[in-house]
Amino acid sequence: MAGPPTFATPPGFLGIARADPGAGFVVAGVPLDIGTTNRAGTRDGPAAIRRASRMLVDGIHPEHWVDPRDLDIADIGDFAIALGDIPGSLALIERQAAACQHLVALGGEHGITLALLRALSRRLGTPLGLLHCDAHVDTWADNFGQAFAHGSPFYHAIRERLVDPRRMIQIGIRSPVDRATWDWTIAQGVTTVTGQEAQELGPAALAERVRGVLGAAPAYLSFDIDCLDPAFAPGTGTPEIGGLASWQAQGLLRRLGGLDFRGMDVVEVSPAHDVAEITALAAATLAWEYLALQALRR
């Protein structure tokens, strides 16, 4: 391999040094950590994902032979947040996200997705389809007594008509959940695929299920890293056994070419609980695979 060693690459995602918010594709960190679990949080998640992405810059993958860095892409650093003010932080995140044409957000915790969906849905003027990969439904009406937190973004997204629940599919769900929340979610029209069902289907059949739900209209991808089993992603605040393997998630994303995704996030990386950067690397690779899909579309 020619060129400088990977440790000498710039600190941006995939070593991207350009910081133009007007780029066609914008990577941004959203280091919001509301702190609604007993484990160390996700504030350092964006930095950890960027560091791990240096492992991905030495070549291109033979599965698709595209380099996301060939896109009109920039890494603009981290969004500003209002520390200790959840509604204020969500408003700030929404305003900054609205200025980005196609955003790839590195979390931070899952509560940020509500602000990102507000920005994108309002800019497009239509509810979005949603692929939500997670161990948890995240449709609780509140989370530990807080109305806006990492367990409730999609409750609000559905209520605010930011997403069309009939075009929303959740993959990897396996955490305990109260029956009322489960029934409410299903009653809205959401398609929920449990972790065990997802593994039994396999990436190819799972991708066809996703295509059938999302259709051809604009959609969004939100990937909570705890969709992966803790064996592959220990660095997260709310691990649940029985999750997908890294290769299964990667295989799923690679089969979603042609869908009209308009943005994505990968969230809930908690470096304090990571081992040898494997969680951060998984998150960086999923964002890389998503960008590879966009490069293939073009």
TrEMBL record:
Gene Ontology molecular-function annotations: agmatinase activity
SUPFAM superfamilies: Arginase/deacetylase
Metal-binding recorded as keyword: yes
Keywords associated with the record: Hydrolase, Metal-binding
InterPro entries reported for this sequence: Agmatinase-rel, Ureohydrolase, Ureohydrolase_dom_sf, Ureohydrolase_Mn_BS
Pfam families reported in the protein's UniProt record: Arginase
EC numbers on record: 3.5.3.11
Keyword Transport: no
Family: Belongs to the arginase family. Agmatinase subfamily.
Protein name: Agmatinase
Organism: Belnapia mucosa
Gene name per UniProt: speB
